[in-house]
Design a protein that fits this description.
With 131 residues, the chain is an alpha+beta fold. It has three helices and seven strands, in the order βααββββββα.
């Protein structure tokens, strides 16, 4: 059975700004507090948190959609990559990020599901509050 993580968060920034923060390595690192390598070029590799997360950029439609092939160090060697889909949606003076993350292996499902809030949504709110 395929796994599904589905989350949404509303943040006090434009969708364009949120997209830029995710796709720009310096902004992404400032927001999460961890090193990242990322590019908007389809097919390019990315890594986050010193290689704890890695994968490739499948599709990028600026400034609304990012699709990544994604895995963590907790995936087994024979586990296929999961797929991460992020959409950036304007909502008045704020914006919503919708996340769909499919095919996370069972042994890492809870950690990944909780990690989005702990390492991204909470960090993003703090980052925006400091700006």
């Amino acid at each position: 059975m395929r796994s599904l993580i589905q989350q949404s968060v509303v943040l006090p920034a434009s969708a364009e700004s949120l997209y830029a923060t995710y796709i720009d390595p310096a902004l992404h690192s400032a927001m999460t507090g961890g090193p990242i390598e990322i590019s908007a070029e389809a097919g390019s590799r990315f890594s986050a948190f010193g290689g704890l997360l890695s994968g490739s950029m499948i599709t990028v439609i600026a400034p609304r959609l990012i699709v990544q092939s994604w895995r963590s160090v907790n995936f087994k060697d024979d586990d296929p990559d999961s797929t991460l889909i992020l959409t950036f949606v304007p909502e008045g003076q704020q914006s919503r990020i919708d996340l769909i993350h499919i095919d996370v292996p069972q042994q890492d499902f809870e950690g990944v599901a909780n990690g989005w809030d702990k390492y991204y949504w909470t960090a993003w709110k703090k980052y925006l509050a400091q700006k």
